[in-house]
């Protein structure tokens, strides 16, 4: 009797192992590319836990923020609204609506209005008078893609492209120029701490792809927030974070204006405001 149970148990184990092997290697929905992701530095300051929450409950996942020369704060939200906060009244306004759920980066235009990145429509120009228009949606017949490199417009390196900074403690998202000429870069923690090894082996990537419940375990985007201030030579000047995402996480942009840092996030309903003099 005991030997029969052992044989049955062994057979079941073998069947399960074969099924898992087939699932992982032959039915996996991905063709994995290996990445060498270094563990993030262990230094934590949690200064981003000191933010002031602007417009809490009024903003749906404000990915990027920008401040114009009048001091008006703009953000594009995932419900298609470009909202603004005027300096003089402190109230959020629904400024312009675009039929889209994929509004991302925004910037002020030299002649007025905003330039808005929409991953489905392309680069948009948005103005008070004319609403929005598409500036460009395709390049050489292909839909616009967005990358992060440094391209020299003048000087000895004019016309060349190079890497501005590498080996960052996270994946870079929006980059914004600071008043002193340095840059603020929002960093996304793509992988939960301790799970960086997943990207080093095809079997682990197949395993995660085959069992989607594992994705939440590995995905670190919503588990912390990090921004870095980088000098023009690529040296990190300072790093601010919320190491466990207690107050804010998944920060995607950081804009400095009048000694404050304004933060956008794809997992919040507010814009963060941090006094830099006390950070």
From TrEMBL:
The keyword Transmembrane applies. The chain crosses the membrane at residues 12-29. It holds the Pfam family SSL_N. Keywords: Membrane, Transmembrane, Transmembrane helix. The keyword Transport does not apply. InterPro entries: 6-blade_b-propeller_TolB-like (IPR011042). This is Strictosidine synthase conserved region domain-containing protein. It comes from Glycine max.
């Amino acid at each position: 009797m005991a030997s029969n149970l052992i044989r049955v148990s062994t057979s079941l184990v073998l069947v399960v192992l074969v099924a898992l092997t087939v699932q992982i290697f032959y039915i996996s929905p991905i063709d994995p590319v290996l990445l060498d992701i270094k563990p993030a530095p262990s230094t934590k300051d949690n200064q981003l836990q000191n933010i002031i929450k602007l417009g809490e409950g009024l903003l749906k996942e404000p990915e990027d923020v920008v401040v114009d020369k009048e001091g008006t704060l703009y953000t594009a939200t995932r419900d298609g609204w470009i909202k603004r906060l005027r300096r003089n009244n402190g109230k959020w306004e629904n400024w312009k609506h675009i039929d889209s759920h994929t509004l991302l980066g925004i910037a002020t235009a030299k002649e007025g209005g905003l330039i808005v990145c929409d991953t489905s429509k392309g680069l948009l120009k948005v103005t008070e008078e004319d609403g929005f228009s598409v500036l460009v949606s395709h390049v050489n017949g292909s839909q616009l893609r967005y990358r992060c490199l440094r391209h020299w417009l003048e000087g000895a390196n004019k016309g060349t492209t190079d890497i501005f900074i590498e080996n960052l403690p996270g994946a870079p998202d929006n980059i914004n120029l600071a008043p002193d000429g340095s840059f603020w870069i929002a960093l996304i923690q793509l992988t939960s701490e301790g799970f960086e090894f997943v990207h080093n082996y095809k079997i682990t990537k197949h395993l995660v792809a085959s069992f989607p419940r594992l994705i939440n375990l590995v995905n670190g985007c919503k588990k912390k927030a990090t921004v870095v201030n980088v000098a023009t030579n690529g040296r990190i000047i300072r790093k601010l974070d919320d190491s466990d995402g207690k107050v804010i996480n998944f920060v995607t942009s950081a804009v400095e204006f009048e000694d404050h840092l304004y933060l956008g996030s794809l997992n919040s309903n507010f814009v963060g405001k941090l006094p830099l003099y006390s950070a």
